[in-house]
Amino acid sequence: MNRKLAVIGLVGAVLTTLSGIAVEVLVKPASDVSDTMWSYPWSSDAIVPVSILYAGFHLLVLLGMLAVVRAMGSRGGRIGAMLAVAGTFVLLVAELASIPIAGQRLDDTGPQIVGPVFGLGVALTAVGLLVAGVAVLRSDDWTGWRRYAPLAAGIWSFLLIGVSMTSAIALGVAIYGVTLCVLFAAVYPHQSTVSSEPQLRARIDH
Predict the structure, then answer these.
(1) 26-34: which pairs have CB atoms within 8 A and are 24 or more residues apart?
(2) Residue 193 DSSP one-character state
(3) What is the full per-residue pLDDT of the chain (206 aa) written as tens digits?
(4) Three-state DSSP class for 174?
(5) Which of 61, 69, 75, 95 is the most exposed place for a label (fewest CB within 10 A)?
(6) Contact assessment for residue 186 and residue 149, using Cβ atoms and an 8 Å cutoff
(7) How many Å apart are CA 155 and CA 168, to the nearest integer?
(8) Which residues pair with 105 in a beta bridge?
C-alpha cells in the first residue's frame, strides 16, 4: 500500500513539475492578461478548470505525503510529515477557493484572503518537511541519497515562500515538483513503519 501511495504522489509531483514548466515557457509569453489580475497568466475563464486541475495535482501529492508519514520511523518524523499533509490539503483548498475570485484584481478582498491561504499551505509544508528531514538525518532508517530527500524538499518549500512573491513563481513551482519527485522516489522502497509496530507488539505479547 505504501508503494502505491508513493507512486500516486510521484504522478502528482511530475504533473506539478510539467505544469510549472508549461506556464513559464508557454502560457506566460503568450498571455495578454494583466499581472494585476488574480488569474494571471490565465484568463478568468481559463483559471476555473486550471484551478480544478491543480487541486487534483495537490490531491495526488497529498496521498503521496501519506506514504512519507508511513515511512517515518520516529514520532517526530511522522509529526513533520503530517504537517506536510496538512499543508498540501490547505493548498488544495486554496486552489478551489480561487474559482469564485477568478475575475478579481490582486488588491480586491477575495485575493487578499486567498493569497495568504496559499502562503499558509506552503509554510506548513515547508516546516513539516524540514522537521521530517531533520528526523530522518538523526536516524538510520533511510540510507544513501534518500535520507536527504525530505530535507531538500523542505528547504525548497521554504524558499518557495519568497519565490511565490515574484514573477518566477511558475518556475519555483516546477522546482518544488522536482523535489517532490525525488522525495516520493526515496519513499518508494520503504515499507510502512506504522503498520508494523502493532504486529511487533503482538508477537512480543504472544
Answers:
(1) 27/170, 28/170
(2) S
(3) 789 999 999 999 999 999 999 999 999 999 999 999 999 999 999 999 999 999 999 999 999 999 999 999 999 999 999 999 999 999 999 999 999 999 999 999 999 999 999 999 999 999 999 999 999 999 988 989 999 999 999 999 999 999 999 999 999 999 999 999 999 999 998 766 654 444 434 444 44
(4) helix
(5) 75
(6) yes
(7) 17
(8) 37
Query: In terms of residues, how long is the chain?
Result: 206
Grid cell at residue 95: 486552489
Scanning the chain, the segments in alpha helix (DSSP H) are: 2-22, 28-30, 47-71, 75-97, 109-138, 149-163, 169-187, 196-205
Q: Are 160 and 173 in contact (CB under 8 A)?
A: yes
What does the block give as the cell for 104? 478579481
